[in-house]
Protein 1
Amino acid sequence: MDSNSFWLALALMLVFEGLLPFLSPGNWRRTFEQLVKLSDGQLRFFGLCSLLLGLACVAMLW
């Protein structure tokens, strides 16, 4: 993987991260407020699930 692929992946991540606040800021704010109320263990669980899902996608596409 060259550096261009890394920067492209980072740019796409930012596009996806910006879609919800741009399209529906009220829903995004309510969702973020609910996330803030989660315990550390719950946040770690969701983070682990996201990490594993991302790694599975990378493994399938590589």
Note: The chain has one domain: 3-61.
Protein 2
Amino acid sequence: MTTAVAPVAPGVLARVRAALDALTDPEIPVVTLAEMGILRDVRPAADDPSLVEVVITPTYSGCPAMAQIANDVRATLQRLGVPARVTTQLAPAWTTDWMSDAAREKLRAYGIAPPGRCGVDGAGTGATASEHVVRLVPRAPEPVACPRCGSTHTREVSRFGSTACKALYQCLDCREPFDHFKPH
């Protein structure tokens, strides 16, 4: 005889989501995981409806911050006393299109040039992110505006900045170096 397991109450899911919405990115503490699009879902686990499943997606495959992000999520869930698990979902792959406008503005204010939109979410094409066709033809680079003075008279110094998801740029007007979050 099996014992029926009570499913996660909707109020618990809302409470978990609210708590997780406040978690910040360990590498860029001015933006939340939700604003970055890293926090993908909070739902009852399909194999155990009494368990909350939190789904996260890395900004880059092999992102070293993912272990810290998963630990931060687990610690938050423990503090709430909610039985849960954290699942890392790689497909569809994260895209800078998942970032909120608030995240872009916070990056700019923090001194990081935010990425433009890539259109990977299929906007206007009828395609979803998982159906997006990857084209290996380089596009002309979009001008990158300096987050300090707004000038687009900038140059890439290094394809790799302070983290793998950012490139190092320099403004040729104010002469300041800055990170640019790579669009993808």
Note: The longest strand covers residues 48-56.
Protein 3
Amino acid sequence: MRNDAVTQTTELEDKLLDLVAEEGMIDRALLSRDAKLADLDIASADFIMILMAIEEQYGVYISVDAEMADLKTVGDLLAVSAKKIEEKAAE
């Protein structure tokens, strides 16, 4: 069971990284969990486009609130996004 959850998490993260790369116009190879968002030169408009793409793809709402403002790394973004997607799936 645990391996299935890990596989699903990895697959979700891969899909989210693909969205970040596409919408943020960033080389996918540069996106690791430890990559700092500030170092990736993601403009605020690009960040909004990334969030909108995640919302559209997964049918979730991700508000740009304090939780989003505190994101520092790609891993932080993945964690918040995955949490919202999992919450939606549990409904």
Note: The chain has one domain: 2-90.
